[in-house]
Write a structure and sequence with these properties.
Layout (H helix, E strand, L loop, with lengths): L10 H16 L5 H9 L20 E4 L2 E3 L2 H11 L6 E5 L5 H8 L4 E6 L2 H9 L2 H4 L3 E5 L12 E6 L8 H5 L1 E13 L2 E9 L5 E9 L11
Parallel strand pairs: 3-4, 3-6, 4-5, 6-7
Antiparallel strand pairs: 1-2, 7-8, 8-9
The protein binds S-adenosyl-L-homocysteine.
């Protein structure tokens, strides 16, 4: 049997993390609140201990069920575009390792509602101590294309998988004045898009850099 993971944030880990934050700064991340939250959260806690020494490289790593934890730069980039403010209600599609989720929670979201479609990954979350540490996270095993109508509307919506199109149900569940950030398919890779819903309900779309995400798929996987 695999032994229980030890959550130890050593001096070395903290040092590697500070270096990663400097790399993110050099790559153009300027939002201090995003950098602070990423400096506060030990990324190696979300990975198998086999990745302990390389957890702070700007790379994606496998997390099971053929999925990956996003690159730190991608996490920083999406979070910066989302302009997170304290007290907001945020919907995240693609919980994966919970790394991105805890960053949104650490930044003071009133509640982060996060959806994952891979049963295997939601089971993994049961063991994670983050569930007790961040009481402002609610986990759902669902199809993210449908969102969470019961809890809508949301101030912010973040999709962390490559969407084939802008999911209409999620646009519906965005508050007037709200923002949604998502990578949308463009063949080989995806284009980062930010949707702004104006107070009159009209939609404005901005286009940013290209990225490479795992696909956003419909339905649940057992
Ligand atoms: N934010 C995650 C990124 C994980 S990769 C992290 O930091 O680790 C993207 C995740 O989106 C995968 O776990 C994948 O299973 C999930 N996903 C894909 N399509 C989905 C859907 N329709 N609903 C919910 N989750 C989905």
């Amino acid at each position: 049997m695999k032994s229980a993971k030890v959550f130890n944030d050593s001096f070395q880990h903290k040092g590697m993390r500070r270096k990663l934050i400097e790399t993110l700064r050099e790559k153009g991340i300027t939002d201090e609140k995003v950098l602070e939250a990423m400096n506060a959260i030990p990324r190696h806690f979300f990975l198998d201990s086999a990745f302990d020494k390389i957890a702070y490289e700007d790379q994606a790593f496998p997390i099971g069920a053929d999925q990956t934890i996003s690159h730190p730069y991608t996490v920083a980039y999406q979070t910066q575009l989302l302009q997170v403010k304290r007290g907001e209600k945020i919907l995240e599609i693609g919980t994966g390792s919970i790394y991105q989720t805890t960053i949104l929670a650490e930044m003071g979201a009133q509640m982060v509602y996060t959806i994952e479609r891979q049963k295997k990954l939601t089971d993994l979350q049961e063991n994670y101590y983050f569930k007790n540490k961040y009481l402002n996270i609610k986990f759902f095993y669902r199809d993210g294309f449908l969102g969470l109508p019961t809890y809508a509307p949301f101030d912010k919506i973040l999709i962390t998988a490559a969407a084939p199109f802008i999911p209409p149900k999620l646009v519906e569940q965005l508050k007037p004045g709200g923002l949604m950030v998502l990578p949308v398919d463009e063949g080989e890779n995806q284009r980062m898009i930010r949707i702004t819903k104006a107070m009159d309900g009209s939609i404005q779309e901005e286009t940013f850099d290209a990225f490479s995400f795992v696909p956003m798929l419909g339905g649940k996987n057992i």
